[in-house]
Amino acid sequence: MAIEKLPVNFKDDVIDTSVSDKRRYNIIENEDGTKSLEDVTTYSQIGSNFGAEQVNQTNGAVNSLINGFSEIENSVKEVKGKDFVLANQEILTFTNRIASMADERITADSLADVYFTSDTTLAAEKAVITVETYSGRVDLTAEREPEGEIKASIVIRVV
Length: 159
Description:
2 helices; 159 residues; alpha+beta; elongated
């Protein structure tokens, strides 16, 4: 599930305080008798627009994450046959960049589905973790020493 990166470089308007510390407006008389305001403030920085399009993008990204987590929850709940949940949002303990979990039901041909919790996904991505199964255990190997705590759910599919 690839989620599009949202912009994180929005800026606020910054009033040039050497000219004024308040926004300034001209009042314009319209032909129909109404008045309009024209912003004539001197800015040292013009801010970014943030409107419905950006709100919709943000909400769409959040909804995608929620849907993804629902799929993960369903995967963890839909364990069938010999398959089983080895860990359910547990903290992984890495020693010399390896977190090993033992269970006699794991075979060398078993498949391990690892779902990192949303609050530790970034740390797991930075650590670059790979997974291997052996007879009786699963090893998660971090290419880099994990920064902080990493939690995951692990479903073992016995083949």
